[in-house]
Amino acid sequence: MGETRAESVVRELYRDLLTAWNDRDAERFAGLFADDGALVGFDGSQVDGPEIGKHLAPIFQDHPTATYVARVRELRILGPGAVLLRSIAGMIPPGADALNPAANAVQTLVAERRLPGWRVVLFQNTPAQYHARPEAAAAHTAELAPQATDGRLLT
Q1: Of 144, 119, 149, whose CA–CA distance to 16 is shortest?
Q2: Which residues, at least 6 apart from 100, have a Cβ–Cβ distance to it below 8 Å?
Q3: What is the pLDDT of residues 65-111, one digit of tens each?
Q4: d(CA 155, CA 146)
Q5: What pTM was computed for the model?
Q6: Please, what's the largest Cα pairwise distance for the chain?
Q7: What are the domain boundaries of the chain?
């Protein structure tokens, strides 16, 4: 069974979010969120919708950020106009061509259909540390490694 229209749109919303990060565009990244949306960053930062762009701008300005690649693991309709997306992600450091396993993450995005379209209401980026399970950490990296090599952002 293929994706529903809503699931496909949310997959593209997620792609747009990661692309905005990879392009280091804080304004575009923040513009994908609902006004009452929330971001939970890799370091545990919790940022509300209106502050997301202000939070990311100095990060992009002052730090060379890594590039995301990701694989969607689940898309689930939560109700009319609401979709959950779960994924695994990895990051390629600036100037590198391979993933940094220490930056692997599990990501969750919840989106709602709002005028003028779908918006992110929650994006959570959790470190994938897999405590005491090195095989799980290695599998995470191995699953994303082909994308790092061939340049595919999202599968």
Answers
A1: 119
A2: 66, 90, 91, 92, 93
A3: 999 999 999 999 999 999 999 999 999 999 999 999 999 999 999 99
A4: 11
A5: 0.96
A6: 45
A7: 5-150
